[in-house]
Each structure stands twice: as structure tokens, then as C-alpha cells.
Amino acid sequence: MFTGLIEEIGRVAAISPLGEGRRIEITAARVLEGLAAGDSVAVNGVCLTVIGQGERTFAVEAVAESLTRTTLKNLMIGEEVNLERALLATGRLGGHFVQGHVDGEGEVIALEPRNPGFWLRIRVPRELAPLMVEKGSITIDGVSLTIAAVEGELISIALIPHSAQRTTLGYKRSGSRVNLEADIIGKYVQRLLAGRGTAPGSLTGERLQDWGY
Questions:
Q1: The domain 8-85 is classified under which CATH number: 3.30.565.10, 2.60.120.10, 3.30.499.10, 2.40.30.20?
Q2: What span, in angstroms and rounded, lies between the C-alpha atoms of 207 and 213?
């Protein structure tokens, strides 16, 4: 479990084949503190397991499923990535609950300067659009953010200067691909409604009362 608060930006040092997956070595500093083989680290929002560690690097294994469903398949040596260690039970939950289980890839439509910060517009996959809610939470490349506006399959994020400077989102351009993880609460509600034969858009106050809420 993660919070979506990026600890540092790392850099891909090496990539090598590992069966149908890949071994990815990443240069880092802060996240190396207390890190050990078997620990979980979110790399651009993808939960991966540490399989090795050097003086200034750590290595993770990305299986075929992770490569297929995320932008990890497009990583190149020298590329910067967002890093976050798994949440400690004693830590503060400053973002929102993030599993590191990417639901799909989005496409950056625009990163427009605003004073202060930026206005980030992303096209999400059609199947994820029902989970996008204004003022709701979204994880983009591992960063916990709040959706400012929803227009069909387009979502907009008011990106504050801190997030732009301390994560890779400030470098995104039109056409960039990003990993998306919808809020886990929304996914469970959608599943509940589907099990009851109820369309997600038909949730009303009356229905909630009928169900005891």
C-alpha cells in the first residue's frame, strides 16, 4: 500500500531481459534507506518487488503482465521515474490509499502553465471514465492528485508547483503516456452496483436509503 506522495525521482540505470519480463535497475538515494530484498517500491505508480540492491541502486523485476498493462514497457536507460516506498503502519496518510495496481494508461493532451502551477489534461481509457469524479482522487504515474474537471474521457488536474517540480509530471508533453490508478473506493462501488444489476449512473439517495445507508 502507498500514499501517492513521491519520495524522490530516480533514474533508470539498466534494463535487462528476465524471462518474459525485465529486470530494471534504478539509481536512487532516499528510498534506499532501510530498503531490502522483498520490499515493495512503486515505480511510476507500479508496485514492484526489490530483488537486489547496490550502493546507489536497487533492482526490481517487472513480469510480463506489468509490462503489458503499464508504461514500464517503454522505459529507457537514463529515464527519470517517480519512486515511493510502501507505507509504514506508523506513517501519515498524506495522499490517498494507492495499491500500485495500475488500471490502464492515459494520454497527456496538454500541460498548460497556470500561475501558479499547471493545468494537466489527460485522456483516460473509455472503461475507466465512469470512475473519474470531480474532486475525486486519481493516481498518475504514482502521484496522488485531485481531479479538477471531467469532460467525458478527458480529466483535468490543477498541478501545484511542488508536484510539478518534485515528480516527473512537470516534464510531460502532449502525447506522453502515463499510468493511471483509479480510487479503490470507486472501483468497489462500481463492482457492487454491477453485482446488483444497477448501472453506475443510477445511484441515487433513495437507493442508498434502501440499502441502509
A1: 2.40.30.20
A2: 9
Q: Are 147 and 156 in contact (CB under 8 A)?
A: yes
Q: Where are the domains of the chain?
A: 8-85, 104-190
Helix (H), strand (E) at residue 190 = helix 184-195
Distance of CA 194 to the CA centre of its chain: 25
C-alpha cell at 211: 440499502
The letter for the amino acid at 93 is L
The tens digit of pLDDT for each residue in 171-200 reads 999 999 999 999 988 888 888 887 766 555
Per CATH, the number for 104-190 is 2.40.30.20
Does residue 209 register a pLDDT over 70? no
The continuous run of DSSP H or E covering 66 comes out as helix 64-69
pLDDT of residue 178: 98
User: How much is the pTM?
Assistant: 0.88
For residue 91, pLDDT beyond 90: no
* Grid cell locating 3: 500514499
